[in-house]
Amino acid sequence: MEAEEFRLVREALRAFAADHRCDAAEVGQAERTTAQKALDGLGLGELRRSTPPLASAQECALLAEEYGRQPLATSFLGTVLLAPEVLRLLAAAGRHAPYGSRPTVALTRDLRFTGRDSEADHVAWDAEGAESALWIGDDGTVRALDLGGPAPTTDLLRVVREAHPGTPDSVLGRLDPEQLHAWRAWALVMVSSELVGAAASFVEQSTAYARDRSQYGRPIGSFQAVQHLLADATVAVEACASATRYAAWCLDHADPDTALAAARVAKAEVDVSAVEAVYAGMQVFGGIAQTWEHMAHLYLRRVRVGATVLTGTVDLLTALALPEPGPQVVEAP
Amino acid sequence: MTDHDVPLDFGDPADLDTLRRELRAWLAEHPLPRRRHGEPMAEFLHRWHRQLHSGGWVGLDVPERYGGRGLTALHQVAVSDELGACRAPGVPRIGYLAHALLEFCSEEQRARLLPRMLSGDDVWCQGFSEPGAGSDLAGMSTYARRSADGGHYLVNGQKLWTSYAQYSDYCLLLARTDRAAPAHSSITAFALPLNRAGVTVRPLRAANGDDEFCELFLDDVRVAVDERVGAEGDGWPLAMTTVNYERNALDTGHLSKYGLLLERLRRQLREHRGALPDGLVSAVGRCVVDYQVLVAHARRRTAERLAGRAAGPESSVDKLLMTRAEQRLYETALAVLPEELHRDGGAVYGEYLYSRAASVYGGTSQIQRNIIAKRLLHLSSAS
């Protein structure tokens, strides 16, 4: 994308987020539907429709960061970035007939990558406006699952629904091993990017609060204890941003194994540091951030669940400490 | 995210790959030096520095007319990375001094000093801290008094922590040239030859037994006006430029050192997995993450510099990330390689002790947090 074009797309997304940001945890269905329509109206689904795609991974990751900055009840990751990329990869390999439904991604009940058994317990993640969910096997097989009723989640703004195999079983195609690696790396980077945006924005808001809020007759941000708390939170956010942006660049420019390793690094960093950054921000807000009305818990819920989405941190660390030698068996990324 | 956060160019992979292959081929023909029995580390690293330079592998991002290769900092990262992957000692730690000289020296000084710095003909050290001016660097009291005819300065004072001064030919020295003016506008920098009369160097023994740190005593040292770097009063901005680069792991050559040790830890895990506690796998994984985040961060900073953003206060973030990676890495190394915990004088234990200095040298971690709070977050300080 041209720099100017990217700037305009990001501004449009920013304007959408400003209009539809949630001030409370309760969001009615009518409100959600209106917001999703507005988001869909931006046409971001086109960014990765074709091969080569209109937008690079690096650009999409920056958009996911931008999206993550505000509490929103719409689906951007699942239905705009993650599932369409599966369909694009299938189409690029000529392995997929046009698919009419609007899918999000299926994850296991504990929100991990699917892979072993399509009959197992699954949910459709980030499912606002979705009509189906894509299940992706360890061998690359892509199936469309049907959606059921709402499933429990503590990220109150994110819709999760039950998902189960349709009848008849609907196999859409099969990703080759390289594509499967590329997609999992893509998913890890996009989810990480959203969390980077959330943590960065929350730390900025708590810093602004520290400049305004006075105790003992002066702004709390003038106390060194508070300054160092926010400095550490800033370092945590910068670490997340560096790892994630570099991993996004790798998606565009490196081989799938390198990209997957960089994506694992990014997600492992974000899993810990984004949560720590939000904790620090909440500490600065003090009592007010402990209330239902304050937006702090919306950020906390997002990063806390986000830190477990797609793959567990311990699995990531193990894969990084003990990389599989030679051609990798596709296991838990 | 600000509007500055645009897609970055992390370098042309094919171009960087060619450079890496060139370096690997050169290393194959020029075997790594071995440290001779009893050879001081500094002398060994100096031999390595000259060997690297003979192949054109020092100062890749320094313009050709000053003895460099005229490439970008991204090329320098690739070389640093590749040296680690080839288990070679890292790049010489001159990047931050070279940047300071490039920015503040006169054309004549750059042409005279930089090529010899890059080749290792002249070894440089940095005379900033003093016994009474550590974290509060601007509180230094070393004084350079201009002679009545204006032709030279007489310098008196004492410097501390001037690493490797006993092996050095030049010192980038900071001294006050005006006792009345505010601290930040009264400090001046000099390129002082260390063989000058009145200079005494005394090595201190560090906790790990090395004699890296030195004291420098200056008694009526005569310094010519054309040995001054920049104008009078330019010393503070020069010091800030130096430390901004010094706080980046890339410019201090630390990255390849970490990569080397991590490979050893991973090997140990593979070979002795059953015998090691399970938690150590995660601990090493966390060190891999720290290291790779640091590499990604150095690349991002480099890409940002190439996109026109100069090194500034955000280098304090770099320094804290480097400290995090280094201290956790050596802590973990002692757990994964328990025999090293009892080998005083061993390389790993020595580096472990040195890792404790990471949160002190180049500005303590507390000073870095103060800088982030004031300069990046714009939080006011208590009056």
Q: Which features characterize this protein?
A:
A: 333 residues, alpha+beta, Butyryl-CoA Dehydrogenase, subunit A, domain 3, 9 helices, 12% strand, globular, B: 383 residues, Butyryl-CoA Dehydrogenase, subunit A, domain 2, 4-stranded mixed sheet, 4-stranded antiparallel sheet, 11 helices, 8 strands
Short description:
Chain A has 333 residues and is α+β, with helices and mostly antiparallel strands. Chain A has nine helices and eight strands.
Overview of the molecule:
The complex is a heterodimer of chains A (333) and B (383). Chain A has 333 residues and is an alpha+beta fold. Chain A has a domain at 178-321: Butyryl-CoA Dehydrogenase, subunit A, domain 3 (Up-down Bundle), CATH 1.20.140.10. Chain A contains nine helices and eight strands. Chain A has helices at residues 3-20, 29-41, 57-68, 77-92, 177-212, 224-253, 256-285, 296-306, 313-321, and strands at 103-108, 122-125, 132-136, 141-150, 160-165, 171-174, 214-215, 218-219. A five-stranded mixed β-barrel of chain A has the order 1-2-5-4-3. In chain A, strands 7-8 form a two-stranded antiparallel sheet. The longest helix of chain A has 36 residues, at 177-212. Chain A is globular and about 70 Å long. The two termini of chain A are 30 Å apart. Residues 326-333 of chain A have low confidence and may be disordered. Chain B is of the alpha+beta class. Chain B has three domains: 13-92, no CATH class; 124-233, Butyryl-CoA Dehydrogenase, subunit A, domain 2 (Beta Barrel), CATH 2.40.110; 247-376, Up-down Bundle (Butyryl-CoA Dehydrogenase, subunit A, domain 3), CATH 1.20.140.10. Chain B is 44% helix and 13% strand. Chain B has helices at residues 13-29, 41-54, 73-85, 95-104, 107-119, 235-246, 254-271, 279-306, 315-336, 347-355, 365-376; strands at residues 124-127, 143-146, 152-160, 170-176, 187-193, 199-203, 214-224, 228-229. In chain B, strands 1-4-5-8 form a four-stranded mixed β-sheet. In chain B, a hairpin with a 5-residue loop joins strand 2 and strand 3 (152-160). In chain B, helix 4 packs antiparallel against helix 6, helix 7 (254-271) runs antiparallel to helix 8 (279-306) and helix 9 runs antiparallel to helix 10 (347-355). Chain B is globular, with a radius of gyration of 21 Å.
